[in-house]
Amino acid sequence: MPTERTGPRRSSGRPRVRIVSPALPDANNGNAHTASRWASFLAPLADVEVSLDWHPPEPCDALVALHARRSAAAALRFAHAGAGAGADAPLAVVLTGTDLYGDLPMGNVEARHAIECARIVVVLQDAAIVSLRSLASAAVAARTRVIVQSAPVVHAARRDGDAAFVAVGHLRDAKDPATLWRAMRRLATDSPGTTLAHIGAPLDPALAVEAEATMAACPAYRWLGAMPHAATRRAIARARALVHPSRMEGGANVVIESIRSGVPVLASRIDGNVGLLGADYDGTFPVGDDAALAALMRRFLLDDAYAAHLAAQCAAREPAMRPACERKAVRALLRDLLASPSE
Question: Are strands 144-146 and 120-123 parallel, antiparallel or unpaired?
């Protein structure tokens, strides 16, 4: 029976899918990239629209909400629109790092209601499943699946003047650029050839001041500001390794992009990174430990066997990050959302 939520299906028979995202595809961040990529995967099967919100009676047969807290209003309106409500609605909620490691542990009501109303909850790396079990009901955990994100392969030859390392992350506390800066100041005293290019917009003006100060004190560090996504991918591909010191990640696109380009990763030891790199990955350091990060960077440049070992570990994780794998999983998600709850 048609409901206020869906309305009559178009004569073409194609379902109408809304992806609600805190950032639209023209924004240069992880949510925007995910929304754009998932829309392209579903386009052959459905009429897909990416937007910041959803309101009845806008036609929609299935809704995918990226970010439980920031998309909660749209998710809850959709879940309760028309006939039926709760987890029977064709609603999927995709959890970000701030959902899993910030909002839900802190008891955010909107995020919790969104996942309770979702027919399917999606996390972006394996370690997130363990975290969710301690944060949500058994029923929510049972409705949760992992969809590992993907990226196309980008290769680029190194050029004279390219930095040895690249870091990609807008200047905000969750990305922990301060640990990166402290590590670079350490390396400036004993390893001045350890160069790093840092790509990211100055979302926090105070952190932009610190980035400028680090450049002045450490010529080996270059803050490049925001760059287009294609240029960022080329910069990653030309680096010897990616440095990713985040405090909080759901499953970082940039780590996947680096691995797909054959570039090893030095990353903070948080679930969002370990879930992508593997629990046995040998290129992680404790969150906020600039001395440990500096030691890893130094070792990576001086120890060829270590660098090759990290490259081999990343290569072993790479097949799960190919677009064909993510496309299959996203299409299965839509199929399951559109199926009758009793099927």
Answer: parallel
Q: What is the 3-state composition of the chain as percent helix, strand, coil, each rounded to the nearest 5?
A: 45, 15, 40
Question: If residue 141 lies in a helix (H) or strand (E), which one and from where to where?
Answer: helix 138-142
Tokens 């944060």 correspond to what residue?
Answer: 135
Task: Kindly report, residue by residue over 111-125, the tens digit of the pLDDT.
Answer: 999 999 999 999 999
CB atoms within 10 A of CB 149: 26
- The position carrying tokens 């496309």 is 327
pTM of this prediction? Answer: 0.89
Give the CB-side neighbour count of residue 299, counting CA atoms within 13 A.
17
- Taking only the tens place, the pLDDT of each residue in 149-203 is 999 999 999 999 999 999 999 999 999 999 999 999 999 988 888 999 999 999 9
Neighbour count for residue 1 (Cβ, 10 Å): 6
Distance of CA 319 to the CA centre of its chain: 17
Neighbours of 16 (CB within 10 A): 18
Is the Cβ–Cβ distance between 205 and 179 less than 8 Å? no
**Distance of alpha carbon 149 from alpha carbon 125, whole angstroms:** 8
pLDDT level of residue 4 (50, 70, 90 thresholds):
very low
Which residue pairs, CB below 8 angstroms and at least 24 apart, start in 276-281? Answer: 276/125, 276/148, 276/251, 276/252, 276/317, 276/321, 277/313, 277/314, 277/317, 278/313, 278/316, 278/317, 279/127, 280/313, 281/310, 281/313
Q: Are 39 and 48 in contact (CB under 8 A)?
A: yes
pLDDT in tens, 26-37: 666 778 889 999
Give, rounded to a whole angstrom, the gap between the first and last alpha carbons of the chain.
Answer: 17
Phi-psi region of 149 (alpha: psi -120 to 50; beta: other; left: phi over 0): beta
